[in-house]
Amino acid sequence: MKKGKDPAGQSDEHNSRGIELADRGWLDEAINEFRKAIELDPSSAHAHDNLATVYAEKRLYREALREYLLALSLEPESATAHYNLACFLSAHAADMAIEEYKHAIELDPDYPDAHLNLGLAHADQERIDEALAELEIAIRLAPDDPLPRHELAALQMDEGDYRGAIAQLKEVVRLDPGSFDAYLDLGICYAQKGFYAEAERAYGKARGIKEGDLLLDYNLGALYALWGRPQESLEALARAIAHDPQKVRGWLQSDPMFETLRERPEFDALLK
Asked: Is residue 184 part of a domain?
């Protein structure tokens, strides 16, 4: 200890030096300085906070979260401490979740739920190839669980791979015959591929599970519009509008599946 300086003063010096090093991009050296500051003054909330910031930059998310929480525990009434924790969570929670799922898989490679959730986390960040790979692993590990198959089908639908989605959804409804959402999605996929009779059958199965659903009626309207059955399309759209007029009319304004109906006065009347 330097003569004439208390531990808190020396802690502030190390903290300041750590900030300078971090600003220069020397993160490991900055970590050492912040650790020295905390060793000299464990109650230094700002040193914990600065250490957390550097840990986050190095993608050491677990360590960063621990330091942010320590800073908050030392100054629970500090608006800055709450703000810094919120910023960390907003910026890095998804990345941290991915790292933890990966760690779970390292410990147990045959953990289907970890692969499933890692796939969904990748999908949320638009890492499509990684998401598809993880969902396929989840299916391989739990072939009788309809959820990974349905999630894979949903991602394939988003990517325009309706043929691949149909294959997965046929398995989903085999495993879970009572899944309204699976039959609805199956109908959407069939309609997109031009298999209109198959789509109608899938929607019929969905209606047998749950009658009077907005999305079902809307997609039935789309199917019949594409199929050249305008009267049935208009009837289905009228039912959909009855559920939520503002939402459905907003969809109809720009949905290209209804181009064949736009010149009809009955369609125009539905929009008013």
From this structure: no
Tell me the average pLDDT across 43-65: 94
The total number of residues shown for the chain amounts to: 272
d(CA 139, CA 122): 16
Among the candidates 92, 117, 140, a domain finishes at: 92
- C-alpha to C-alpha distance for 222 and 200, rounded to whole angstroms: 11
Q: Please give the structure tokens belonging to residue 63.
A: 């360590």
Give residue 3's pLDDT: 52
Structurally, the chain folds into a number of domains equal to 2
Return the biggest CA–CA distance within the chain: 92
- Residue 212 gets the label, from left (phi > 0), alpha (psi -120 to 50) or beta, of left
What is the sign of the dihedral through the CA atoms of 90, 94, 97 and 102?
negative
CA distance 220 to 238: 11
The tokens of 64 are what?
């960063």
Task: Return d(Cα 183, Cα 153) in angstroms, integer.
Answer: 12
With a CB cutoff of 8 Å and minimum separation 6, the contacts of 262 are 268
**Residues 233, 241: contact at Cβ < 8 Å?**
no
- Per DSSP, the three-state class of 19 is helix
Its domain, for residue 234, covers 212-272
pTM to 2 decimal places = 0.83
